[in-house]
Design a protein that fits this description.
single chain; alpha/beta; 7-stranded mixed sheet; two-stranded antiparallel sheet; 11 strands; 17% strand
Length: 295
């Protein structure tokens, strides 16, 4: 509670500071934290696992820029609470015409976003385009921090469906039924509960929720990855409409097929700019080299 109270003045400051100043400060703090090893060994281990062919210097550069992006994401989460700021002023969206055509089908949208650069500004841009958006998220530990996160998301124009809500599935169904968009972030280690298929070239357990929603409701499926080509306030959002996924009618096989296509699209986008990914989270967990590792 005390730390939360002390952070309040900083939140006010980030909302009124020029965005370029606020993000410059974020990069400075990120660089200091990187030198101090704030994120531990997880980024290094992940990058060694995915890019063994790259030199240590190359992997370290990816980790450094990814760390910068993560700190800037936190600042943007607060900075874009200022209603005068527009995400679309600082974002280029690839394939926007195809996205607009997909939305016009009126089937509702399943927006599947990788843990990349800034997932939050992706939702903000979606609402600025005039579409309804709801993000499915896991609550943070600690009431005050979770309340702050909800306030930030609400100020950015989109709602939140908590994974802890007893009626979460019903809420998702309702949004898609009225033609809105539901944002999911399935690229997390689902352990034994997930579907195992390649992600960035290595087998990874992936949550089934996105594939299950697609199979049940038949929404338009969009896969998106956000990156910062210049490591600053400017964003590039790569989006692809996944059409005509071959389905067999066997639920388990179809869950695997849809998840595989989602992961493959994310992988393609992330390999264009590996610095966009959040290497600090344990994406592959203990599933290594095609098997669960004990411990």
């Amino acid at each position: 509670w005390l730390l939360f109270t002390l952070v309040r003045p900083l939140i006010w400051l980030l909302k009124v500071l020029p965005l370029t100043w606020a993000l410059a400060a974020a990069r400075l703090v990120a660089d200091v934290s990187f030198r101090l090893g704030f994120l531990g060994e997880v980024p290094r281990q992940n990058l060694e696992y995915i890019f063994p062919e790259k030199s240590e210097q190359e992997r370290r550069r990816i980790a450094w820029l990814a760390n910068r992006s993560m700190f800037q994401m936190v600042v943007e989460l607060v900075a874009y609470m200022n209603p005068k700021r527009k995400a679309l002023d600082n974002m280029v969206i690839e394939n926007l015409d195809a996205v607009a055509a997909a939305v016009a089908r009126g089937r509702g949208i399943l927006l599947v976003v990788a843990h990349s650069s800034n997932m939050v500004i992706t939702g903000r841009a979606w609402t600025e385009l005039g579409y309804e958006a709801q993000a499915v998220v896991k609550p943070l530990k600690g009431y005050y921090w979770n309340d702050l996160l909800l306030s930030c998301r609400a100020a950015n124009g989109y709602g939140v469906i908590s994974t802890k809500d007893a009626d979460a599935v019903e809420q998702i169904n309702a949004v898609i039924a009225r033609g809105g968009a539901v944002g999911l972030f399935p690229d997390q280690n689902a352990r034994q509960r997930g579907v195992v298929c390649d992600f960035l070239g290595q087998p990874a357990s992936t949550y089934k929720g996105a594939a299950a929603t697609y199979l049940e409701l038949n929404p338009v499926l969009l896969v998106a990855v956000n990156s910062r080509p210049h490591s600053d306030h400017r964003h590039l959002l790569r989006v692809r409409v996944l059409d005509d996924i071959p389905l067999s009618g066997d639920r388990e096989q179809d869950l695997l097929e849809v998840t595989t296509q989602i992961n493959a699209t994310m992988t393609e986008f992330l390999l264009l700019d590996p610095t966009a990914y959040m290497w600090a989270h344990r994406r592959w967990g203990r599933y290594r080299d095609g098997a669960w590792v004990a411990g």
